[in-house]
Amino acid sequence: MSKKIIQTNAAPAAVGPYSQAVEAPAGRTVYLSGQIGLEPETGELVAENFEAQVRQAFANMQAVIEAAGGTLENIVKLTLFLTDLERFAAANAIMSELIPQPYPARSTVGVVSLPKGAQFEVEAIIVL
């Protein structure tokens, strides 16, 4: 899949590993539900550690994308949910390590709480 990245100087530049907008080619669109850092085998959080939860949430998301027949390159939009926006830089660093360029569009939202006491959740839209 080839994504067209849309960028303009008339809006603020991306402040991390994401694009201002992404035009996706015609194809099958898949909307993924949010994933938190649960271990698939136990249904429990992988750890209390924020970074471990972020990595597990992205691994869970990748498993769902692969089950749909895609790869991380098929992501056109991500939404990140953090219970502590002070950890935004850590989430950015992990995302830039795991998600291939060109980066998808992304929103980040600070929330009061997440299921099972998670500190991080990620949801995605992919185009196959």
UniProtKB/TrEMBL annotation:
SUPFAM superfamilies hit by this protein: YjgF-like (SSF55298)
Gene Ontology CC annotation, any one: cytosol
Coiled-coil boundaries: none
Gene Ontology MF, one: deaminase activity
Gene3D superfamilies per the UniProt record, alphabetical: RutC-like
InterPro entries with a match to the protein in the record: RidA (IPR006056), RutC-like_sf (IPR035959), YjgF/YER057c/UK114 (IPR006175)
Family stated for the protein in its record: Belongs to the RutC family.
Family matches, as PANTHER family: 2-IMINOBUTANOATE/2-IMINOPROPANOATE DEAMINASE RIDA, 2-IMINOBUTANOATE_2-IMINOPROPANOATE DEAMINASE
Protein's name according to its UniProt entry: Reactive intermediate/imine deaminase
Organism the protein comes from: Corticimicrobacter populi
